[in-house]
Design a protein that fits this description.
This protein is of the alpha+beta class and 578 residues long. It folds into two domains: 376 residues, no CATH class; 164 residues, Reverse transcriptase/Diguanylate cyclase domain (Alpha-Beta Plaits, 2-Layer Sandwich), CATH 3.30.70.270. Helix content is 51%, strand content 16%. The chain contains 16 helices and 16 strands. The strands form three sheets. The protein has a six-stranded mixed β-sheet with strand order 12-13-11-14-15-16. Strand 5 and strand 6 form a beta hairpin. It catalyses: 2 GTP = 3',3'-c-di-GMP + 2 diphosphate. Keywords: Membrane, Signal, Transmembrane, Transmembrane helix. One of its GO terms (cellular component) is plasma membrane.
């Protein structure tokens, strides 16, 4: 339910961002008549408008479109706009070109010519399009020829239109709102990625954030929404749009290789996925710059170099699904629409399929679907990884307890106290009491080791019975125990613990012939935080005191006070308590 509420808030916030982003496009709310070219032709750089009028080899269907030629001509017939207003504006998909020269030719042969360069193109928020003003079109105009020099994109040619309205094109307000909605949806995963990364330092989260950023730039520039807020140079938009898509596609493959669970990919497929990801960033990214020298082949090269990406990413997802990957199922749902839309765009790029620029809405919707589903996949993976880490931490704590706890009594063992001794001394545990049960071997000999173990457990219960934060009980091994104490009257408290041992053992281990007493050697340190003695030194001193207590008749305490001095110390105090 929490995930559902999160997704609801996610979509609601995206809708609000979409409404805000779509406001500048509010004027474009009705369909405007537009007219496509009736015919097209390709020529060398030397061909003129007179040549095309006299003997041009025109192709008057939507076939054989090419952008790998010096010049492409478009022919707009007056018959298509006679019943409407006279066209004033040319618009088409944003792409690189050198110049577009318009020839408005009247029935009497008079021609009005206007040559415009790429720098004259003005992008506007009506889709991924730019516009250029036409020469004067009159009622006598019979044909309009557009000479496009060094085009870098087939859609620049196939999607070219003329219209009477200089501020509007094909995309409706609803389509622009959909585009803005997708942008809004792309903003929020970045916040998710930041939140996830703060908790879970996984590389795939960073890659996904970079991938979303690239796709956001693509939607803003290729969709024309950026032009609603700022006027950017046409050459910049023509490069940034395909470049960001190439980077996003390459990052998606790197994301796939790092996001899938261990074992979801074979080593060969994983290496191939990563290599293809970098290839997709480099190769289509290079062609996206559309240099003048690459004009004859960069359009086709851009789309051709995407084919390995589509093939490998499809194979990688299929393999991961067949291996039972849960994450791969999310990715398959998320990426299937965008793969289909990319293939359609690829066919248009090759000129094998002709359609309006509004078909790009398929890619933008697919990007929106991808964002929602992949965000859910990351959330699901986040929960899975968190469960795995919690389980690992629990197991580590259990192993730590096993390695630092005495299995019989549950007290800390010698390994644990030696590791923490300096820290505990610094925390003020200034009294070191070594406890040893008197004549414990006789218990094992007379009653067996089971009774002896019960006596040890009862002894442990007695020395930790206070349960406060100012005493720590440790079993060193055999019948030896250590109690560290801090605070006032520590010596008296140690003696009280020693005296409690026989009573606790007598209560919990019935049938013993004699009471089980304990001897104790205690060292009380002054200014404990300044003491530099190691655990072994304290133990040796306390052990000597404990044997002194046993030699004095057992069932008693022997103690020594240690003080740190900057000059020669006086004689140390020693004593016994019985």
């Amino acid at each position: 339910m929490a995930l559902v509420r999160l997704l609801f808030r996610y979509v609601l916030a995206a809708a609000l961002l979409a409404l805000l982003a779509a406001r500048p496009a509010a004027a474009n709310d009705h369909t405007v008549p537009t007219f496509a070219a009736a015919c097209h032709a390709v020529t060398g750089i030397e061909a003129t408008a007179r040549d095309m009028q006299a003997r041009g080899q025109w192709i008057c269907n939507n076939q054989s479109w090419r952008s790998d030629v010096p010049v492409v001509w478009l022919r707009f017939e007056a018959a298509s706009w006679q019943d409407g207003k006279l066209p004033q504006q040319f618009f088409s998909r944003i792409a690189r070109f050198t110049s577009i020269t318009f020839h408005a030719i009247d029935a009497n042969g008079q021609a009005r010519v206007k040559r415009l360069t790429q720098a004259d193109g003005v992008p506007f928020p009506a889709g991924p399009v730019f516009q250029l003003p036409l020469p004067e079109i009159t009622a006598e105009t019979t044909v309009l020829l557009a000479r496009i020099e060094a085009p870098h994109s087939v859609p620049l040619l196939t999607e070219a239109r003329i219209t009477h309205d200089p501020g509007k094109a094909e995309w409706s307000q609803i389509e622009m709102m959909l585009l803005a909605f997708v942008v809004g949806m792309l903003v929020l995963p970045l916040l998710f990625d930041i939140s996830f990364f703060l908790v879970l330092r996984e590389r795939f989260v960073v890659i996904h954030a970079a991938m979303v950023s690239a796709m956001m730039i693509y939607v803003l520039t290729a969709g024309g929404l950026a032009s609603a807020f700022v006027t950017l140079p046409l050459a910049f938009l023509a490069v940034v749009s395909p470049l960001s898509y190439a980077i996003g596609a390459g990052l998606s493959m790197l994301f796939l290789a790092t996001f899938l669970e261990r074992g979801a990919q074979s080593r060969v497929m994983r290496n191939l996925t990563i290599a293809t990801g970098w290839f997709t960033i480099a190769a289509p990214g290079f062609f996206a710059f559309q240099f003048d020298a690459t004009q004859p082949f960069d359009d086709r090269g851009y789309f051709l170099t995407f084919i390995p990406c589509i093939a490998v990413i499809s194979a990688a997802v299929i393999e991961a699904v067949m291996r039972g990957s849960r994450s791969a199922r999310y990715i398959a749902v998320a990426w299937m629409p965008i793969i289909i839309a990319s293939i359609e765009r690829l066919l248009r790029g090759f000129g094998w399929h002709v359609g309006p620029s509004s078909l790009d809405q398929m890619i933008y919707v697919a990007v929106g679907i991808e964002v929602v589903v992949i965000s859910l996949a990351i959330a699901d993976r986040f929960l899975a990884l968190r469960r795995e880490r919690d389980a690992a931490l629990t197991e580590a704590k259990m192993l730590e307890q096993i390695s630092t706890r005495d299995s019989l009594t549950g007290l800390m063992n010698r390994r644990a106290i030696e590791a923490r001794f300096d820290e505990l001394v610094a925390q003020g545990f200034d009294t070191f009491a070594l406890v040893d049960l008197d004549r414990f071997k006789a218990i094992n000999d007379l009653h067996g080791h089971q009774v002896g173990d019960a006596a040890l457990i009862a002894c442990a219960s007695a020395i930790r019975a206070t349960g406060d934060r100012d005493s720590i009980a440790v079993r060193l091994g055999g019948e030896e125990f250590v109690v560290l104490l801090r605070g006032p009257r520590s010596l008296e408290r140690a003696e009280a613990l020693r005296q409690a041992i026989p009573m606790r053992i007598a209560k919990e281990v019935p049938g013993l012939d004699l009471p089980v007493t304990a001897s104790m050697g205690v060292i009380v340190m002054a200014e404990a935080t300044r003491h530099k003695m190691a655990f072994a030194e304290f133990y040796a001193r306390a052990d000597a005191l404990m044997y002194e207590a046993k030699a004095s008749g057992r069932n008693r305490l022997a103690y020594e006070r240690l003080t740190v001095f900057t000059s020669a110390p006086p004689e140390r105090g020693r004593g016994r308590a019985a």
